[in-house]
Amino acid sequence: MSTLSKCYIFLIVAILACGSASQAKFALSKAFIIDPWFAGVAPGLVDVAIDGKNQIHVAWQNHTAASGLSYFLYYRSFDLYGNPLTDVHNLTIPGLVAIGSIPIACNSWGKLAVACCMNDTSIVPLQRRSYLWLSNATGQLGSPFELELDRLPPSETPYPGLAVSESGRTIVAWANDQINNSDSVYYEMYDENNQKMFPSRAASTGEYSFHGARDCKVSVAPSGRFVISWSAKHNGEPNWPFLSWQPHARAFDADGNPMCGEILVACEGFPETCSGDPAYFHDGKASDNIPDVAIQDNGDFVVSYRRDNSMDCLQEYYFVRRYNADGTPKGPNIHINDQTNCIAWPQPPRIASDSIGNLLVAFQINTGWNSDLWNNFGQRFDPTGARIGG
Hints:
Radius of gyration: 20 Å
């Protein structure tokens, strides 16, 4: 048997349970196999969610050697020690292949949601469509919902992000990509009975360039308030002379009504990013992109993002920006990393917040020209934005 004829997907589960800074607990389980039985498998993306019963829910992609680039979507639940609670469920829709992001989310009592972008390879040009699966009263995932298109085809709905509230409502956001035209970001809400609460609504107040929206993320507070973040590309507009990505965010109340306008996260702290000052950009190229978002009990929220200062050396910097629930900023951008990356594409920073605003940011650093020289870091911040520890 060759070393490539069988492949496994492993999951290492990290749990952060913070009631306060003094009560923070961190547990790391053993690694365990989530997909043990496919021969010749090439793993794809994976995402994980943990409910209040310490049940671990995993969604992932893979494909067998025989299927070429046709990825399939799977789901399985485990207990905290890696023992399977369900069989492997194939969520792939007949005739489609799974591509792009595959977010999974749940609340404390186990309401579960999975989203995935899928593609019909028989259509030219390719048509990316995002779908949503929600658990029913017995905890089983039901039939998928196709996320609405705001406009007539040809349009696409890639890059979904989602969250599940304590009441059982599901919020899902995605990029509305109108082929050969501009992009925008939309969202929907589903109630605890999996009924759509209203037709799709625009989260973004403007439109972006073609293929100019992506990386949607959603975070919801116990009160039901939620925040959506995304990346948007601006190109050729008066204040956007370079092709650059910027992180955006917008806050909503528990019924899905906006609590603020669209926020240009990086521009508020770095106005030179928006003015396109060539003296600021290395080689005249920069992007702030792939945001993550976390929300507190009171609706205050924080956005993290990655800054690429050069397409030639890809020097990476990571930042965090804190906001009140109404979208007003709380202090300046916080620079996370002291070292920069060069050459390789690191994973974007991920952020989590406890109930009172203590933050944990995880990120990668590559300090050399060898893409194998990776280190993973975590940095904590208190509710004022001050660093905790080194």
